[in-house]
Design brief:
Bound molecules: guanosine-5'-triphosphate, magnesium ion
Number of strands: 32
Shape: elongated
Largest sheet: 6 strands, mixed
């Protein structure tokens, strides 16, 4: 069974709705006003099952559009997902303005299959029909509807003449429609929202890709609301799942009619990101009266949505009618768009269709449009080239598989084999879930060793550079940085010591005076026990300048050779260790100790005793109880 969406197109009153009814028995004009005025205002739907050319069952979902020029925006909301068009031209009127406008739109949307239907054949004589046929053939020359590839069939919905020929032509054309991939990520642009008694909120749309199942959770884009598919119908019948190419109705839990509207899209949760700017390949129609200027405001239509856009052109050069250009469009609303999606542009005022094109990138990285090799690749490259370009442009940051899925809309089954090729050839580096280009990896790796070298040079007294500091210097993502460090350690280009990274064999190399000074500072404190000298006096007696001496002290403190217990007092760690032993011995005699006992025990003056006791409190060796101390 093959599911296909058939759309009508053509000028007002040319018999589109009558044709759909003649084929399916369903009146697609569902609004009271439509019935009263005898014109189509909004989209109408119908369905038909018939045998395909090779005997398989064809499930045809019809989208009937209005022909009135005032309702082209409704037409645009329905025409987005069609596989096969019936271009309707009334034999008694031939080609009219919306015949042209609708046909332009079909071409811009990249519709590939169709049949031209000359309706109302009963209303003209044979000669007139022949003349119209020739006129129409001329009109279609060089397009996807060119004869004889694509037939022109004359019918009368009134008498039924030609309908069998039309069905046969539809069966043949349907066979040519490329099957959509049901495993792709699902997207359902909503074209109708209503409540149904006993059901609640219902939305309908053409499922343009993937599969939607009953009980599945979906996200509404762009609002982010999560909904559950409580019930599902395809062609008016209850089903467990809908697949791409089917008219689908969903009964949703988790949203009311006010929360949803035409133009929103349903897709799997947390898969995609909405955007307000897209880089595109744009075509300005030959029929556009004026060149399209940089920063022109336009109406932007894609799938069932419409918004206002501003066109950004590179070099600010206007686009001439009947030409193509790479451009950026900034949108007034956030929308879900993916590369490959088609769109239509209509002039801001007066509102006429002037062009359209294909989305190349819904996640542009640069603030301004840059027409470079990357954009050219996204415009014309194959999947491998496109993935490569998307990885390359992330430079040192790399990109996750998840982000690649979100950016391209391709499922993992499409992406994985391509990534495997890139990784195997060594062009791409894989770090956990991240992918990084080889040049970016090489570049980062080449920065690390010189950065460590430079650090050693500038900080001869330090044993190495802090990992975090180095990471910030190289501006690499933490996972990538860790992988690079690991690789360089394996290559014996660097060493890790705790939190520090250093060159192999690089301890602290001190100049003679510095080494001497360090020894003297240490000795000054080691030999005096708890009766330590003032730090500034020790420093003053050294051979090195004050800044260097300060640095040496900092190193001694960091290595815990010296311990600072107050702003002025610094002790050697051995002296403090000895003090702890003394206190422990004292505890055997009494667990209580006052300041006098402490002074006696250690032989220090009150000036030293108080800070030392406070230090011992902080270290939880003692605890202050009133004026005395309890030994813990
Ligand atoms: N004689 C004749 N009249 C037809 C035929 N098909 C449609 N009509 C008449 O043409 C008029 C318009 O037909 P519709 O089917 O409503 O036209 P439409 O293209 O759907 O019009 P819009 O949706 O408003 O663009 C109606 O009065 C139909 O009865 C036909 O094959 N023969
Ligand atoms: Mg109609």
């Amino acid at each position: 069974m093959k599911s296909i969406i058939v759309g009508t197109a053509g000028h007002i009153d040319h018999g589109k709705t009558a044709l759909v009814k003649a084929l399916t028995g369903i009146d697609a004009d569902r609004l009271e006003e439509e019935k009263r005025r005898g014109i189509t205002i909004d989209l109408g739907f119908a369905h038909l099952e018939m045998a395909g050319a090779n005997g398989e069952t064809l499930r045809l979902g019809f989208v009937d559009v209005p022909g009135h020029e005032r309702f082209v925006r409704n037409m645009l909301a329905g025409v987005g997902g069609i596989d096969l068009v019936l271009l309707v031209i009334a034999a008694d009127e031939s080609i009219k303005p919306q015949t042209r406008e609708h046909f332009d739109i079909l071409q811009l949307l990249g519709v590939r299959q169709g049949i031209t239907v000359l309706t109302k054949s009963d209303a003209v004589d044979a000669e007139t029909l022949d003349v119209v046929r020739l006129e129409v053939e001329e009109f279609l020359r060089g397009t996807f509807l060119e004869t004889p590839n694509s037939p022109i069939v004359a019918v009368s919905s009134l008498t039924g003449a030609g309908l069998d020929d039309l069905k046969q032509a539809m069966a043949t054309a349907a066979g040519e429609v490329a099957a959509r991939d049901p495993r792709a990520l699902a997207r359902l642009p909503i074209d109708r929202v209503f409540t149904m008694k006993g059901f609640g909120t219902v939305v309908t749309g053409t499922l343009i890709s993937g599969t939607v199942r009953r009980e599945e959770e979906l996200e509404v884009f762009p609002t982010g609301r999560h909904v559950r598919v409580r019930g599902l119908q395809v062609h008016g019948e209850v089903a467990d799942a809908a697949v791409a190419g089917q008219r689908t109705a969903l009964n949703l839990a988790g949203a009311s009619v006010e929360d949803l509207s035409r133009g929103m899209t349903l897709a799997p949760p947390a898969t995609f990101k909405t955007t307000r700017r897209v880089d595109v390949k744009l075509r300005l129609l030959a029929s556009a009266k004026r060149p399209l200027k940089h920063r022109a405001r336009v109406h932007f239509h894609a799938h069932s949505m419409e918004t206002v856009g501003e066109v950004e052109l590179s070099d600010a050069k206007p686009v001439a009618p009947d030409s193509d250009v790479l451009a950026r469009i900034k949108l007034s609303d956030s929308v879900l768009l993916l590369p490959g999606d088609r769109f239509i542009l209509r002039q801001f005022s007066p509102v006429v269709t002037i062009g359209g094109g294909t989305v190349l990138d819904a996640n542009p990285q640069s603030r301004k449009l840059t027409v470079d090799e990357t954009l050219e690749t996204l415009a014309g490259g194959d999947r491998l080239a496109i993935l490569k370009a998307r990885i390359w442009r992330t430079c040192h940051e790399g990109i996750s598989r998840r982000a690649l899925v979100a950016e391209t809309g391709w499922g993992k089954d499409v992406i994985e084999p391509q990534l495997a090729t890139l990784v195997k050839s060594g062009e791409t580096i894989q770090i956990g879930d991240l992918l990084l280009s080889r040049p970016a990896w090489d570049d980062l790796k080449a920065q690390v060793v010189p950065a460590v070298e430079a650090f050693h040079k500038q900080n001869p007294l330090e044993r190495g550079i802090g990992k975090e500091q180095l990471q910030v210097l190289t501006d690499a993502n933490p996972a990538i940085f860790a992988a690079i460090v690991e690789r360089l350690v394996r290559e014996k280009k660097i060493e890790i010591a705790g939190d520090l990274i250093r060159l192999p064999g690089q301890g602290v190399v001190m100049k003679d005076e510095e080494a001497e000074s360090k020894k003297r500072i240490e000795e000054a404190f080691a030999t005096t026990g708890l009766k330590v000298p003032a730090l500034h006096e020790v420093i003053a007696g050294l051979n090195v300048d004050k800044a260097r001496a300060q640095k040496i002290v900092t190193l001694l403190l960091r290595d815990k050779v010296l311990v600072k217990i107050s702003d002025e007092l610094v002790f050697h760690s051995a002296a403090l260790e000895e003090l702890r032993h003394q206190i422990a011995a004292q505890k055997a005699k009494s667990s209580k100790m006052d300041v006098a006992t402490f002074k006696e025990l250690t032989g220090v003056s009150r000036k030293y005793a108080i800070p030392l006791l406070e230090y011992l409190d902080r270290e939880r060796v003692t605890r202050r109880v009133g004026d005395a101390r309890e030994i813990l």
